[in-house]
Amino acid sequence: MEDLLIQNVEIWTLEDSRVIGRGWLTARKGKITSLGQGAPPPDLEAKTTIDGQGRLLLPGLVDCHTHLMEYATAEINHTQGKAQGMAAASNLLLALQSGIVATGEHHLGHPVLDMPMEKYKEILKATPLASAIAYGCCWLGFEPKILTSATRPGASFTEDVLTDEDYLLMAEASEFPGENLFLNYTCANAPLTAAPHAGDVTYDGEKLRHIIELFHSRGKAVGAHIEGDASARLFIEAGGDVIHHGHNLSPEMGVLMAEKGVSLVLTPVAGTSKRPTSPEETLAFYRQGVFLALASDAYIYPHPEADWISLPANRLAGPAEYLQIVGSTLRYFVEKGVEKSEALKLVTVNPRRLLRPGEEEAVLKPGRPADMILCDKLPALATEDPADIVLVITQGRVQVDKRV
Ligand SMILES: [Zn+2]
After folding, report:
1. 7 is in which domain, residue-wise?
2. What's the CA-to-centroid distance between 219 and ligand 1, angstroms?
3. pLDDT tens digit string along 1-19?
4. Model pTM?
């Protein structure tokens, strides 16, 4: 007996651009068990059967760079203490309702929020998302400059107080290479005028190499918040693994990233002091062979120069705006001849691979995770409205059903 049978659906497997025109799929114990064309075998039994009515079934969206559990709980929900945990779960629910089945969360320490590191994992475990969390430290480019760290939540420092023990704790606890380090001071969500040091370089090569070695000594890849060629080159040469944002990088860096196998998590709406990477620049990195994922950095104010995205500059963009954040880039890819399935990988299969490195590619295929969305139109490519994602399935169970 299967747990779930979905029939009468167009299946976008995202495996080699394979689309099953009208088919069916089954799941059991959180995994896909079988799929095929036409009607399901007549003897197939399932606890839950869904008639997809010709809709599209594809792997769930994955936003591998978010701050929904920490910074957003202050900026969007205005919570602290135990209420922060409630807000974190609530923000994750909104992501799920928007078709996002996994997020890449960050705990960077916060001057006020003092929720301990392990609590973030507990909250995540209680959700049906396949999210992962990265722990790191953050340099804020205010005057004076401020340092926060996941290892010392609820405090801020004006100078570097972190020891090897802090970095080892971050490394051991991190589940994926997120923004573990900031190679440039950030303006976060403050206006640039309030963060005069935003963009300045934080580490020298020797210190950076040492910290990266600490992460690697614990078998963990390292990710970093980066803008500009100088920081990107420093990071790549020091052995870093994943560049987050990577705004204002030249094609020369694309060559280097492809050559060294360094992945790039682009945030097309904002994230650093620089203009984000445009759809044209993103396609150029793709053609150079850089492993790419698109993410929101939610919640965040859109960068004034990100004119390929039509979101209001004065409103924080979050999971409900995810399709608007990635849509223009993905449509540009398709316009320039990239297969739709290939473009969709940048918001599904690729980011998931960064979050869960040990897992096999999360395409729709037997043995792979049954984390899927049922849509009226292709997300990002044909619609930017999360209302067109009518069913969200994770762990082989329907978690969100907008049909009723
Ligand atoms: Zn971020």
Report:
1. 2-59+364-401
2. 23
3. 999 999 999 999 999 889 9
4. 0.97
